[in-house]
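Sharing a chain and its predicted structure for anyone who wants a worked example. Both blocks are below, sequence first, tokens second.
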Amino acid sequence: MKLREKVVPLAYGNVLEVGMGSGVNLALYNPNKVNMIWGLEPSLGMRKKAMHNLAKSAVQVEWLSFPGERIPLDDNSVDSVVLTYTLCTIADWRAAMKQIHRVLKPEGKILFCEHGQAPDDSTQKWQNRLNSLWSKAFGGCNLNRPMIENIQSSGFTIDWFKSDYIKGMPKFASYISFGVAAKNT
């Protein structure tokens, strides 16, 4: 949550949160900066879990029960996109990033907090060894996606980011990058 707190409050305007899940980020949005949130979440179970957080939300949320690869919004209709621990799980992350690029306004921003590929070879070896088993056990989550590279290769420029290991977690699963990216036009 401490890392989510660094990016979610930066959201503004009409927001798309990809993989809203249980709505844990809702308490972090600034209602003075956010008009509304489209919560993209294909899992009915997760949308049901979110009901408690939705009831407490100061910001209007409209559910979109689609996967990240199929965002049912108009081109250039979103001011900011929130990605928190989502890109690791989307099966076709490239298609999802194309959709995000399509719906984000030219001056729009991606606000991200994602875990992924570690910078050191020894940890990467463990990530690669464990990825298949990890993915099966944790709903398709991948340990070894190079998040900064993936965002940049999808038509975005990183405004700023920080990356580090989270203490108290296994090193192979704790390399986190958070920051802001702008749409290349």
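Comments welcome. The chain has six helices and seven strands.
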